[in-house]
Specification:
Blueprint: H1 2-12, H2 19-22, E1 42-52, E2 55-65, E3 70-76, E4 79-86, E5 91-95, H3 105-116, H4 119-125, E6 130-134, E7 138-143, E8 146-155, E9 158-163, E10 168-174
């Protein structure tokens, strides 16, 4: 059971061990945006569906953001694998002992911020050779004229994220009782 949960979380939070096989040799830039730059408080309960190669996994996440902190808990099969807290300066995490070291909290935070934070805040954090395109429904992180991270808004409660650099797709759906996605 613990091995299955560990596998699910590894797929969820990017499979670094297989990155060389799937990634075309580019590393996405870190964002590390201040929580307040979201511009509002947020509390979301989400269903996550990860696709990595032929594998498809579902997980649950609880996300809370206020002006001071970003808090995220990811669960698989009712067990918490990791909780993250970002205060704009320090990223802290609590990990289950069975969670693989390949699970990178920094990448999880960056995917959340890329997907939900305002485009201007994301642009301000990018290095000079990266650009952000955002038309309201589709957001792309570009380098060398190629999109490496893409977020598409399916509807008010669902986003689809494709991470070309790390080789996975993610569907994020806010469930009943939570806020709609920003």
């Amino acid at each position: 059971m613990q091995r299955l949960i560990a596998l699910l979380l590894a797929v969820l939070l990017t499979a670094c061990a297989s990155q060389a096989k799937h990634a075309p040799g580019i590393a996405l830039p870190p964002l590390r945006l201040a929580p307040a730059t979201l511009g509002k408080e947020l509390a979301l309960q989400q269903r996550l569906v990860f696709r990595f190669g032929s594998q498809v996994r579902e997980m649950d996440a609880l996300l809370e953001v206020d002006a001071r902190d970003v808090r995220l808990a990811v669960q698989a099969m009712g067990r918490t694998g990791v909780t993250l807290q970002w205060d704009g300066a320090q990223l802290s995490e609590q990990r289950a002992p069975w969670l693989p070291s390949a699970v990178r909290s920094e990448r999880v935070l960056d995917d959340v911020q890329f997907s939900l934070w305002p485009a201007d805040a994301v642009r301000a954090a990018l290095p000079p050779d990266w650009t952000l395109s955002d038309n309201g429904s589709t957001r792309e992180l570009l380098h060398g004229g190629r999109a490496w991270l893409i977020r598409e808004r399916v509807n008010a409660t669902t986003l689809q994220v494709r991470n070309v650099a790390d080789g996975y797709d993610l569907t994020i759906e806010s469930v009943a009782g939570g806020d709609v996605l920003p």
